[in-house]
Amino acid sequence: MQPVFDAAQGVISTEVGYTGGEERDADYESVSGGNTAHIEAIQVTYDPTRIDYKSLLALYWENIDPFDAQGQFADKGKQYHTVIYY
Question: Which contiguous run of DSSP H or E holds residue 32?
């Protein structure tokens, strides 16, 4: 998802991280291995005068599979569920 948002006109920056877990210093190995309660997430910072929230949502829905309860594409597990935080 990060390249999709990075390429959008009006997106200032994206940052990949983890949310929802209790471990303070979660890392890729522990989260991707399903060893924490975290979900992999992307924070999108954007200029609302150049791209609106509706357009960001359209990019999101065009690039995920909302019917896959196991995760996304090659990434499977609860840490890859589709979630929108705003």
Answer: helix 28-32
- The gap from C-alpha 29 to its chain's centroid, in whole angstroms, comes to 17
The 10s digit of each residue's pLDDT in 12-41 is 999 999 988 888 888 888 888 888 889 889
50-64 residue pLDDT tens: 999 999 999 999 988
List of long-range contacts for 5-9, beta carbons under 8 Å, 24+ apart:
5/42, 5/44, 5/56, 5/59, 8/46, 8/51, 8/55, 8/56, 8/59, 9/50, 9/51
